[in-house]
Write a structure and sequence with these properties.
Thiol Ester Dehydrase, Chain A, 6 helices, about 290 residues, alpha+beta, 11-stranded mixed β-sheet
């Protein structure tokens, strides 16, 4: 029977206090992980801060004075992600994790000033061809009713030379030639990454420093994936009732120039963040065409 560990926190953490243990805790090789526990972190009766919503909306391109962006609650959950990653029982190396997919649903109403309970859990570990994947699932409730849900799918790749080689990832696709361009080109720099880090409390060094990113096996600093999703949705937000599924394909290498494109495919509205020079799709979100 899978172990279950529950962390009841008095308030939402800042995230910064977790980074030393996230970075320094020893972990087994991913091939050696067996029967990992479910780890949950929860906070009750937290406030939805209007000033934080406004700051987030500004860096992600949403209009002022509107309802909280559909992606905003992720930054409430992020410090709880880090709190889980910092525990001794979390089995994987956090700095090597790849954010593969994301699902967001909004069954209720988010309002500035409301009080909410939030629960985040690392669970559903499964072996894939590329590595060991798991879900980081979040639920936010208010007055006992669900108002927001998210599932982040993370992957820890098999080590090179192991008995389970990860293989090469597929080449990212390009948007169709007839895709609609939404808005103008967007310059993305390390200043953008720092601004988002201050709002989201996600100070992962791979986003903020080229040397640190290279230490962890990257070519240089990359933009936060959840900023890419938020900025893509901000240009023309989807219906709030829509379930938004996202696939992350390749990171935005800083600095970069990107553009947002949209098209319909198989009954789905697709929204992508694309490299201006190559046309490569960094990530795309989709929701049913009938929803919007």
């Amino acid at each position: 029977m899978t172990r279950s560990i529950h962390l009841a926190l008095a308030r939402l953490p800042t995230g910064l206090a977790s980074y030393p243990r996230v970075l320094l805790n020893r972990r087994p090789a991913v091939e050696e992980v067996t029967d990992p526990p479910v780890v949950e972190a929860a906070v009750r009766n937290a406030p939805l801060d209007a000033r934080k919503i406004e700051a987030y909306a500004a860096i992600c391109g949403f209009g002022r004075g509107s309802a909280p962006p559909v992606t905003f609650p992720h930054v409430l959950a992020m410090p709880l992600h880090l709190r889980i990653f910092a525990t001794e029982v979390f089995p994987l190396r956090p700095m090597g994790l790849i954010h593969l997919e994301n699902v967001i649903e909004v069954p209720g109403e988010l309002r500035p000033g409301m009080r909410f309970d939030i629960s985040v859990s690392a669970r559903n570990y499964r072996a894939l061809d590329a590595g060991l994947a798991f879900d980081m699932a979040t639920e936010i409730t208010s007055a006992g009713e669900p108002v927001w849900r998210e599932t982040c799918v993370f992957l820890s790749r098999w080590a090179e030379g192991s008995a389970r080689p990860a293989g090469r990832p597929p080449r990212p696709p390009k948007a169709p030639r007839d895709a609609t361009v939404l808005g103008s080109q967007i310059e993305v720099s390390q200043q953008t990454a720092w601004r988002y880090a201050r709002v989201s409390r996600d100070f992962n060094p791979i986003h903020l420093n080229d040397r640190a990113a290279r230490y962890f096996g990257l070519r240089g600093a990359i933009m936060h994936g959840m900023w890419s999703l938020a900025r893509s949705l901000a240009e023309a937000p989807p219906p709030r009732a829509a379930r938004i599924d996202t696939t992350f394909l390749t990171p935005v290498q800083l600095p970069a120039r990107v553009v947002i494109k949209e098209w319909s495919e198989n009954g789905q509205r697709r929204r992508a963040l694309c490299d201006v020079r190559t046309g490569r799709v960094h990530m795309y979100a989709h929701w049913p065409e009938s929803e919007g």
